[in-house]
Automatic annotation (TrEMBL):
Pathway: Purine metabolism; 3',5'-cyclic AMP degradation; AMP from 3',5'-cyclic AMP: step 1/1. Pfam families: PDEase_I (PF00233). The lineage of its organism: Eukaryota, Metazoa, Chordata, Craniata, Vertebrata. Residues 148-471 form the PDEase domain. One of its GO terms (molecular function) is metal ion binding. Belongs to the cyclic nucleotide phosphodiesterase family. PDE7 subfamily. AMP binds at residues 224-228, 265, 374, 425. It catalyses: 3',5'-cyclic AMP + H2O = AMP + H(+). The active site is at 224 (proton donor). It comes from Acipenser oxyrinchus oxyrinchus. Zn(2+) 2 binds at residue 265. Its EC number is 3.1.4.-. SUPFAM superfamilies: HD-domain/PDEase-like. Keywords: cAMP, Hydrolase, Metal-binding. This is Phosphodiesterase.
Length: 490
């Protein structure tokens, strides 16, 4: 039960001796705690869970207040965002994202109320009450704490049995898991790849870490949210299974690939690097305007790894190596380095000198695979590709609205009155997606997965061209163009 992790982690993280109660009475202030019948009634238990949730909510509220109370002072924040917890990589405090006023851009009616109801439903579901009652009675669960409510468990489980299929619908999966798609997917993939056993990972620490990562994605972002992270992770899983790559990968390679995909955009503020630079945001100063967001994603992930203690049982040298390689993978997703990686990839393929027995070459291919997974939306089936396209453009438009509000120069692709969804997508496919995936096709030697992706890419580009042509022909204004694209079906 994620909401009780803060209180139970220290006790659940150790082995229990035979005959010992699961939770000693010292954990709870109730003098009536005992093994046997539940001494707390449902209303009291709900009240207890609410208090725990309120404590957690208050901590998260500090992060939200950072947005709203500083909306008129984007550049006033000063200070060091990093914390040196141990030798090696500097980590960041959680919640150090830009102060941005999202209230102005919130176009969903009663979205706060809906979000609150969803959290309460997820928190107080019968499934979690059931597990809480078992914990309070000192009964050791026979299985791990379920992430899903019982009504959805079977359907989500059926989808996970087909997680390697390219037409995997991450939006449906997120609904079936009640917003826990990232946590559920990663637990399944880590187990399926044998990583939990190989690295002797503590399941409670793993769950705590994944919940922290999922919660540090901002659901108010139309695109850079936990669902995007889950989608990239599922794509990465598919790429790791490609025959030419899979036969050489070590458990550490798979662990790093999936972990990087999961956390590559964690704590993304919904604006790009140029916005942070021109508003003199503290992260831009901290990383000297170089891969600002990617550095933040990496250091935030390192902070959560250390906070959860997920790797604390491994040798220090190995932990530091994991943190460094994780950073190398996440930093590779910086779109400004696209030509650098594409040129190296083409050179390797032209010279036929990729030797995947060499760790350095395998790491390079993990970087390429992650880059492909990060921008693979145009290679999905039209229904999903179109939805992702609309989401990313909506996020661009929100940044443009924010820049307009603060009288800043509107960034390219962010002006909803001039930049239409079809035009943005056609340019994205032409200059970024097609060149990278053409080389990926050379590397994989036209596997069925690659052929399917390239087929979707061609068809999706043709549909966007048709929409763009229709808009231009009708001579609609910017707002009309935008609404027409959003509402048009396949």
């Amino acid at each position: 039960m994620p909401v009780l992790n803060r209180f139970l982690n220290s006790e659940l993280g150790r082995r229990w001796k035979a005959g010992e109660e699961l939770l000693p009475s010292s954990v709870w202030t109730l003098s009536t705690y005992q093994q046997g019948a539940l001494t707390m009634e449902l209303p009291e238990l709900i009240q207890l869970v609410k208090l725990v949730w309120k404590s957690k909510h208050n901590l998260q509220g500090q992060k939200k207040r950072g947005i709203f109370e500083n909306e008129d002072a984007l550049s006033n924040y000063q200070g060091e965002a990093r914390v040196r917890e141990q030798a090696g990589v500097l980590s960041e405090r959680r919640g150090s994202f830009p102060f941005i006023d999202f209230r102005l851009l919130n176009t969903t009616a009663n979205s706060g109320e809906i979000g609150t109801k969803k959290k309460l439903k997820r928190l107080l579901s019968f499934q979690r009450y059931f597990h809480a009652s078992r914990l309070l009675r000192g009964i050791v669960p026979q299985t791990s704490l379920h992430l899903l409510d019982g009504d959805y468990l079977g359907q989500a489980g059926h989808m996970l049995s087909k997680v390697g299929a390219w037409n995997f619908d991450i939006f449906l999966f997120d609904r079936l898991t009640n917003g826990n798609s990232l946590v559920t997917l990663l637990c399944h993939l880590f187990n399926g790849h044998g990583l939990i056993h190989h690295f002797q990972l503590d399941m409670v620490k793993l769950h705590q870490f994944l919940v922290m990562v999922q919660e540090d994605y901002h659901s108010q972002n139309p695109y850079h949210n936990a669902v995007h992270a889950a989608d990239v992770t599922q794509a990465m899983h598919c790429y790791l299974k490609e025959p030419r790559l899979a036969r050489y990968l070590t458990p550490l390679d798979i662990f790093l690939g999936l972990l990087a995909a999961t956390s590559h955009d964690v704590d993304h503020p919904g604006v790009n690097q140029p916005f942070l630079v021109k508003t003199k945001h503290h992260l831009a100063s901290l990383y000297q305007n170089v891969s600002v967001l990617e550095n933040h994603h990496w250091r935030s992930t390192v902070g959560m790894l250390r906070e959860s203690g997920l790797l604390s049982h491994l040798p220090v040298e190995m932990t530091q190596e994991i943190e460094q390689q994780l950073g190398s993978l996440i930093l590779a997703t910086d779109i400004s380095r696209q030509n650098e990686f594409l040129s190296s990839f083409k050179t390797h393929l032209d010279n036929d000198d990729l030797s995947l027995e060499v760790a350095e070459h395998r790491h390079f291919m993990l970087q390429i695979a992650l880059k492909c997974a990060d921008i693979c939306n145009p290679c999905r089936v039209w229904e999903m590709s179109k939805q992702w396209s609309e989401r990313v453009c909506e996020e661009f438009y929100r940044q443009g609205d924010l820049e307009r509000k603060f009288e800043l120069e509107i960034s390219p692709l962010c002006n909803q009155h001039m930049d239409t969804v079809p035009a943005i997508q056609i340019g994205f496919m032409t200059y970024l997606v097609e060149p990278l995936f053409d080389e990926w096709r050379r590397f994989t030697d036209n596997t069925p997965l690659t052929e399917a992706m390239m087929s979707h890419l061609r068809k999706n580009k043709a549909r966007w061209r048709a929409l763009h042509h229709n808009q231009h022909h009708r001579g609609d204004d910017g707002s009309g163009q935008r609404s027409e694209v959003v509402e048009s079906g396949p």
